[in-house]
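1st attempt posting a full record on here, be nice pls
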Amino acid sequence: MRIAVIGASGFIGSRVTSELIARGHEVIAVSPTFGVDAVTGQGLRQSLEDVEAIVDVSNAGAFGDVNALHFFRAAGRNLVAAAVEAGVQRHIVLSVVGTDRLVENDYFRAKLVQENIARASPLSITVVRSTQFFEFLQSVTVMNPIDDDLLLPSTLIRPIAADDVVHFLIRSVEEGTGDSFVEIAGPEIWQLDDLGRMLLAADEDPRRIVSDPESRYFGVPIAHDSMLAC
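the predicted structure (as tokens):
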């Protein structure tokens, strides 16, 4: 199968690309690193020639990035238009569990826009919402610093390994299940504040985690189960 990976040079995209090649697929790597820019549209239509499926794992900055909306809206619209013109059959989009519940955050609001653009298209769409990656959990140790402590809510979280996400995306594109919306999560549920304590201990970080139900998640209020898959 000829598959375009959008964001092929990124953390997930590079893994998806390598695994697809290992499984015998022809991969078209789409990212500015490879001379194709979905945000501006440069080289996008040509890169999708004879492509059967798209796996969109592109990303824009970090949570709270105010530029994320421009990135996901422009890239989403350009990608759908180019894919329809090229006759692409299938479109897989990686998103985040909790996207629709955390729209006060610029990043999550932008991801919801990306999802809606894809789902409104005539393509066969699979939106895959994933819980947070184990590999990115260190980011919680920079949230809500106060003096020498960190304030974290006891929000429930079910992190997943990046490799598991990659395998699910590849299965989705190979099996072609048609229009769908799925959420994936790791095997265990943790409290965010407890997980923060474990991360600090592992790094021999002397700071203290203070459990605070009013503390925010990347700037937005969060319910106890906002980050759990439905």
